[in-house]
Amino acid sequence: MYSLIELQKKLLPDMLLIMQKRYQILRSIRFMEPVGRRTLAQALGLSERILRSEVEFLNDQKLITIKTSGMTISQQGLSVLQGLEGIMRDVSGINEMEERLKKELNLQEVVIVPGDSDETPWVKQELGRACAKRMKKRLVGENIIAVAGGTTMAAVADMLTFDFIGNTNTLFVPARGGIGEDVKNEANSICAKMAENTGCKHRVLYVPDQVSKEVYDSFVKEPIIKEVLSLIKKANMVLHGIGDANVMAERRNTKEEDMKIIQDGHAVGEAFGYYFNEAGEVVHKVPTVGLKLDDFSHIEHVLAVAGGSSKAKAIKACMKSATNSTVLITDEGAAKKILS
């Protein structure tokens, strides 16, 4: 038996294309509101003439509101958007892509959001929203959530709300020390934001991510640091991003001799101070303060969040070392490139 969508693809393909285009416009308005027509046209790669007719249609259907400040989505438009979400995943083949990627990477679950965060910045918000949903489904009783740094983790923090936690008792802790990047993208700041948005508690770890063995041995003797490291090791959920190897090496101000090891080893991905080549082999390891890959086998839920077609190799490489408890949350751009 053909499904209704399969029949429409055969008999009315143009209708599905129009529906996809209007759905994409509605989604973009929702994330960019209030947004002007020119800005929206540039974001979607459409001419202003084509966008004008579509915007007029959406306005006539009372799905959007047009003001001098820009376009916003109406409550009716939001309902339509939410109602279409599942259908559009079938139409665009995302559900099928998730199954293929799950088998390809041998993971428990793969979640793909529409779009490519390299091309459309607000897709990162969708990654954050998808991660928040998966977190909520897995939280029961008392929880310690260890959170890494990065812009994607910051997007996850933005999507958490007071109704997220429910009746659970949850503590947010940084998964590792800071690497000296933008303070708002450091693990400590992201933990604080997550705690603030959900009404939960958090702890901080004010130590550098990368230290010598002598400094590390000195740090872990400090009572406060020792206590936080103990909490991190007890985490039942970990949230982390995946980085491009060369980008992360530069952010860490990696020494020239270590940079040579990373480049000669053809590293493409990085997570928790481990640099992986395309075969998933660790070619370099940075001594870091916090969680290490060996700890992951004891953690009940690991959520890896990363998107953008430019990160496809990094994601595939890092996922080769993933545990059975890992859920990958990525976007269409990365997923298509990995599968190709």
Automatic annotation (TrEMBL):
Residues 91-340 form the Sugar-binding domain. Keywords: DNA-binding, Transcription, Transcription regulation. The keyword ATP-binding does not apply. Residues 18-88 form the CggR N-terminal DNA binding domain. GO terms for molecular function: carbohydrate binding; DNA binding. Gene3D superfamilies: 3.40.50.1360, Winged helix-like DNA-binding domain superfamily/Winged helix DNA-binding domain. InterPro entries: CggR_N (IPR048715), NagB/RpiA_transferase-like (IPR037171), SorC_transcr_regulators (IPR051054), Sugar-bd_dom_put (IPR007324), WH-like_DNA-bd_sf (IPR036388), WH_DNA-bd_sf (IPR036390). Belongs to the SorC transcriptional regulatory family. This is Sugar-binding transcriptional regulator.
